[in-house]
Design a protein that fits this description.
Blueprint: H1 4-14, H2 22-27, H3 30-45, H4 51-62, H5 79-90, H6 98-119, H7 147-162, H8 168-183, H9 193-210, H10 219-235, H11 239-246, H12 255-271, H13 275-287, H14 292-308, H15 312-325, H16 330-345, H17 349-361, H18 366-382, H19 386-400, H20 405-425, H21 429-446, H22 449-465, H23 469-486, H24 489-505, H25 509-522
Helix pairs in contact: 3-4, 3-6, 4-5, 7-8, 7-10, 9-10, 10-11, 10-12, 11-12, 12-13, 12-14, 13-14, 14-15, 14-16, 15-16, 16-17, 17-18, 18-19, 18-20, 19-20, 20-21, 20-22, 21-22, 22-23, 22-24, 23-24, 24-25
């Protein structure tokens, strides 16, 4: 039997997946593991070795136990070198040189990793969420407006009122809104629906009035239009409002106004995928301020642009610079969080945890802390540290009680789903069933059909582990029905794989083949899935 630790060692040597595949590896049957290994070897070595030699190499791998040969594990000699020498002992007449063997061996580990990703028991749950770290048009409205910008906006309104361009009550209204924007970032967004609507209508009316024939042209009017646009953005941040600002041109009279104008447009172009324009606006914003906090915010924008372009090295550098400039608190936590998501995407889970921990130390808001616990727990699961993961998800579940409504239920749903997966991996099937049941109730209460499909599938696998095959099949069938109804591919694949496995393990091979043929004819993408 192939030692599971050998596969961990294989993947750890050649990819960031490493121990992160632990849950997947240990959930697979021996037959599946052997099949995956031999299939991956055949794919990688087909051009270098004949079938008999590949079979001998597979046998050498299957008989090798890294725990029994610790002196041979990576150090002065790599596992690849060890396996090459063992292969040569079994096939002394083979002329394959080490360099070619090494190339094929690397292809083998890559193929094995892909195969595990494809067929290992999937867990239908969320990956690390980004609600705390995901930059959106909402973020600028939380940034403190500098005093010079507030003063400039108010001065503009007073000047244009004195010139008769706007009415004095309108100038008073602008002053009140600017004061709120400056003293309480984000306040304008939390007005009542009626008050928010009234403010939007008033701002749009004033902006249209400034465009009317006979109004005095000049930089003061242009700058007031931009100022009103920024106020509108603070009340209702959206791509549409940011796009409206693109048609406006502020003067050079206020560096603070130019900073906010360019920062908003940099964010807008980032979100719609125009990365060159986003970079240009961000660079202009950076030139318009000496404030370290605002430079840090632009650094976050630039880091996000690099992330979207998959330039992770540059993104890390930009975020490190931003962190050095950022004040303590949420902004520094935001930067640490982004660094964590980069490491997560690179499968450097230990580094990701360090960053998420730093983010958690910088925030106090319950939702931010819930998100951090969720992401640390997710990384711990990939590292195989189930007890750390469980502690994080229990903390997440407890904190969710401080939230309200749908948001609280969503967080509790994620926590219950993860704890169910951990319980199942630890062999505590009763607890897994209890947690998955709770997650299903929460999914139903939120009317989230994908979450319902997820928990039906997870609950089905938990009952299968507990030996209740009748319930397991019913739940997996329900998972398939929900998933097909909404075209949810992860759920379809999940239900197909587990149903096939249950039928095969219970000796119903003919029924399994019939089931497989029916679904493969409907979804050809399933044909390569292990059966």
């Amino acid at each position: 039997m192939l030692p599971r630790h050998l596969i961990e060692l294989l993947l750890g040597l050649y990819s960031y997946a490493g121990a992160g595949e632990s849950l997947k590896i240990f959930s697979l049957s021996d037959d599946v593991v052997t099949s995956l290994l031999r299939r991956s070897l055949a794919s990688a070595f087909s051009g270098a070795l004949d079938d008999e030699s590949i079979s001998k190499l597979a046998s050498a791998l299957e008989c090798y136990d890294p725990w029994m040969h610790r002196s041979e594990t990576p150090g002065s000699s790599t596992l690849c070198r060890v396996m090459f020498e063992r292969f040569r002992e079994q096939s002394p007449d083979n002329t394959l040189i080490f360099e070619e063997f090494d190339r094929c061996f690397r292809q083998f580990t890559s193929a094995l990793s892909r195969s595990l990703e494809q067929v290992a028991e999937p867990q239908l749950m969320d990956t690390p969420c980004r609600e705390f770290g995901e930059l959106d048009v909402d973020q600028l409205s939380h940034m403190q407006a500098p005093g010079e910008l507030s003063g400039y906006m108010i001065g503009l309104a007073r000047y244009l009122a004195d010139m008769g361009v706007i009415m004095s009550p309108d100038a008073d209204h602008v002053e009140a809104l600017v004061g709120k924007m400056a003293s309480a970032p984000g306040y304008l967004r939390f007005l009542s629906k009626e008050k928010k609507y009234a403010e939007i209508v008033w701002l749009l009316g004033l902006m249209r009035g400034l465009r009317s024939p006979g109004m005095m042209p000049g930089p003061a009017v242009d700058d007031l239009k931009v100022s009103l646009g920024l106020l509108l953005f603070n009340i209702r941040p959206s791509e549409k409002v940011a796009s409206c600002l693109t048609s406006l041109r502020p003067s050079n009279a206020s560096a603070a106004l130019l900073y906010h104008y360019n920062a908003v447009l940099a964010l807008n172009h980032l979100l719609i995928g125009r990365y060159r324009l986003a970079s240009a606006y961000a660079a202009r914003a950076l030139q318009m301020t000496a404030n370290e906090s605002m430079k840090a915010y632009v650094g976050i924008l630039q880091g996000c642009i690099a992330i979207r372009q998959s330039d992770y090295g540059r993104a890390i550098g930009l975020l490190n610079e931003a962190s050095a400039r950022a004040p303590a608190g949420r902004m520094k936590g935001l930067i640490a969080f982004y660094r964590g998501t980069i490491f997560f995407e690179r499968r450097e889970y230990a580094n990701a945890i360090v960053c998420f921990e730093a983010a958690g130390a910088s925030v106090t808001d319950p939702l931010d802390r819930v998100t951090v616990h969720n992401n640390i727990g997710s990384c711990a699961m990939y590292l195989g540290d189930l007890h750390r993961a469980e502690a994080e998800f229990l903390a997440m579940d407890k904190l969710a009680g401080q939230l309200n409504g749908q948001l609280a239920r969503k967080c509790q749903l994620a926590a219950s789903s993860y704890i169910g997966a951990i319980s199942r991996a630890l062999g505590d099937n009763a607890r897994a069933i209890e947690r998955y049941r709770n997650a299903l109730k929460l999914a139903i209460s939120t009317k989230d059909e994908r979450a319902i499909a997820n928990q039906l599938g997870n609950l089905g696998t938990a009952y299968a582990r507990a030996g209740d095959m009748v319930r397991a099949h019913k739940l997996l069938d329900s998972c398939m029905t929900y998933s097909e109804r909404m075209g949810y591919w992860p759920g379809i694949r999940f239900a197909y794989w587990h149903t096939c496995r249950l039928l095969m393990e219970n000796g119903n091979r003919a029924e399994a083949r019939k089931f497989s043929d029916a679904y493969v004819s409907r979804y050809p993408e399933l044909k390569d899935l292990y059966l």
